[in-house]
Design goal:
Elements lengths: L11 E7 L18 H8 L2 E3 L2 E2 L5 H10 L28 H5 L4 E7 L18 E5 L10 E4 L7 E3 L6 H15 L5 E6 L20 H24 L5 E7 L29 E4 L8 E3 L3 E2 L3 H8 L16 H6 L8 E5 L2 E6 L3 E4 L1 E4 L2 E4 L7 E4 L15 H18 L21
Parallel strand pairs: 1-8, 1-9, 2-11, 3-12, 4-5, 4-8
Antiparallel strand pairs: 2-10, 5-6, 6-7, 9-10, 13-14, 14-15, 15-18, 16-17
C-alpha cells in the first residue's frame, strides 16, 4: 500500500535512533524527572506504541535487525557487540532498508554505525547509504574518530570528535541533508550516540535537568527533535515526512526502564528490549493515538517499503511485519509473537498477553531456567513488571508458550552454525558496549 504525500510522491522517512534510552525516560511514557516537551508533543501529534521491542538487548544485533528486518542471528551478529579489535560485521550483499529504497531515495546514515569497521563491512555506504557521517562504533570505544563518505566506494575522510557536541553536529548534518533533498524522497537514519555513557552534556545547551548529566543529554535530544520537526514544517514537507523516534535497547547504568524488569543486556526481561516508539506524519497518521499492538524494530523495513509502494523479494524470509495498518487505522498487531534473544539463544517469547522466560542472569551466570525446571510465565496484562510467575495457575498456557519457544529455538538457533564461531581476537578487551 503506497501512502503518498500531498504531492503524490512517496513519503520521506527519518528514523531517530537514541542509544541506550530507557522506556521510562520520556514524559509521554510516564517519565517525571526528565523534561521532554517536544517528544511529548510529537507523541500528541502522532502514534505512540507501548509494546514496541528492540530486536536485541544490546547494540550491534539490534541495529542489524532494524536495517535488515531479520533477527541478527541470521547474519552472524547475535553474539554481544562488535569490539574495536573485531573484524566481523554485517555480511556484504545483505538486503537492507536503504538499499531497498534505492534508486529513487536519497539515503544517509548520520551517527553511530557499529555493524563492522573493517572491509568488507565498511564503510556503511556499501549497504545502500549514499552518505555517511559518524562513528564506527560506540563513543566509549577507542581508537575513535568521525568519518565521512559521500559515495559507495568514495574517499573516506576522518576528523576529531567533539564529544559534548556530537548530538548537535548529528542533527545539523541531518538538517543539511533534508535541505539538499527537500524535493525528496529521502531516508535518514539518525543514529545518535546519546544517552550512552560517557555522558558529556553540551555546554551550549545546558538545561539544569533534575536528572543530572543523563537528563541533560536527553533534554538536548528532545530540543533537537523539536527543531527538526519545526524545520520540516518550514520547508513545507511536514506531511510528506514520516518521523520515527525510538531506541536501540533499554538503559544501561543510568536511565529508566519504566515499569519493566531489568535493563540493557538483561537476558529475556522486558527492561532491556521494550523501548519508546513514536511515529509522526501530520495528515497521514492519527494524532494522539496510542496502541498496545506488539511491534519491533524489525518492522521498520517492511513498513517503510509498503508505504513507498514497494515489496521485499518473494524469497526473502523477513521476521519483521508491515505496521501500516497499526499506525494508520489502529489495527491489531500482525505479530502472533515477539522473540527475545540473548546472544544466540532464544531467551523469551512474548504474545499479546503472555510472556514465557526461559533464560536469566544471576551474578555472572547465564541460567537456562528450563534446564532447572523453573521456566517462568507472566501475565503481562496484570503484571508488566514480570514479578510473579503464574505457570502453575495456567499450565495449558505454559505448555503453549513452551511449544512456541521450542519452535523458535529449532528454527533460529541452528542459524548460528552458518557462521564461524565468534572468538575474540588475541588481546581483545571484553567491552560491554
Amino acid at each position: 500500500m503506497k501512502i503518498p504525500g500531498p504531492s503524490g510522491r512517496p513519503p520521506n522517512f527519518i528514523v531517530i535512533l537514541a542509544d541506550d534510552l530507557g522506556y521510562g525516560d520520556l514524559g509521554c511514557d510516564g517519565g517525571r524527572i526528565i523534561k521532554t516537551p517536544r517528544l511529548d508533543e510529537m507523541a500528541a501529534q502522532g502514534v505512540r506504541l507501548t509494546d514496541f521491542y528492540a530486536s536485541a538487548n544490546v547494540c550491534t544485533p539490534s541495529r542489524a535487525g532494524l536495517l535488515t528486518g531479520g533477527y541478527a542471528i541470521r547474519h552472524g551478529l547475535a553474539h554481544e557487540v562488535i569490539q574495536p579489535s573485531d573484524a566481523i560485521g554485517l555480511p556484504p550483499g545483505v538486503f537492507t532498508l536503504p538499499g531497498a529504497l534505492k534508486p529513487d531515495y536519497a539515503t544517509a546514515l548520520i551517527g553511530k554505525w557499529h555493524l563492522g569497521h573493517v572491509a568488507p563491512h565498511w564503510p556503511p555506504t556499501a549497504y545502500g547509504f549514499d552518505a555517511y557521517f559518524g562513528l564506527p562504533y560506540s563513543h566509549d570505544m577507542r581508537p575513535l574518530a568521525l568519518y565521512e563518505c559521500d559515495a559507495p566506494a568514495g574517499q573516506i575522510s576522518e576528523s576529531a570528535v567533539d564529544f559534548p557536541r556530537l548530538t548537535q553536529s548529528f542533527f545539523a548534518r541531518a538538517l543539511a541533508f533534508v535541505e539538499r533533498h527537500r524535493e525528496g524522497p529521502f531516508f535518514i537514519l539518525l543514529a545518535l550516540t546519546a544517552p550512552h555513557v560517557p555522558l558529556q552534556p553540551n555546554p551550549d545547551a545546558q538545561t539544569g535537568s533534575a536528572a543530572g548529566a543523563y537528563g541533560e543529554v536527553v533534554e538536548e535530544i528532545d530540543a533537537n527533535v523539536g527543531a527538526l520537526l519545526s524545520h520540516l514544517a518550514r520547508l513545507g514537507i511536514d506531511e510528506e515526512t514520516l518521523v520515527v523516534f525510538t531506541s536501540d535497547n533499554g538503559p544501561w547504568f543510568e536511565g529508566s526502564s519504566g515499569p519493566f524488569r531489568d535493563r540493557k543486556g538483561g537476558s529475556g526481561w522486558d527492561g532491556g528490549f521494550r523501548v519508546p516508539f513514536i511515529a509522526r506524519r501530520p495528515g497521514r497518521l492519527p494524532a494522539g493515538a496510542v496502541s498496545s499492538a506488539l511491534a519491533s524494530n524489525l518492522d521498520l523495513l517492511p513498513t517503510f517499503l509498503a508505504m513507498a509502494g514497494r515489496a521485499p523479494p518473494d524469497d526473502l524470509d523477513l521476521d519483521g511485519r508491515d505496521l501500516t495498518g497499526v499506525l494508520i487505522d489502529g489495527k491489531p498487531s500482525p505479530h502472533e509473537e515477539i522473540l527475545l534473544f540473548d546472544n544466540a539463544k532464544v531467551a523469551a517469547v512474548r504474545t499479546a498477553r503472555w510472556k514465557y522466560v526461559a533464560r536469566s542472569y544471576y551474578r555472572r551466570y547465564d541460567i537456562d531456567l528450563e534446564r532447572f525446571g523453573y521456566p517462568l510465565l507472566f501475565d503481562i496484562e496484570q503484571d508488566p513488571a514480570e514479578s510473579y510467575s503464574v505457570r502453575r495457575l495456567h499450565p495449558e498456557v505454559a505448555a503453549e508458550m513452551k511449544a512456541r519457544l521450542d519452535c523458535a529455538k529449532a528454527k533460529y538457533e541452528p542459524m548460528a552454525d552458518a557462521f564461524p564461531a565468534y572468538i575474540p581476537p588475541p588481546g581483545a578487551v571484553d567491552h560491554p558496549d
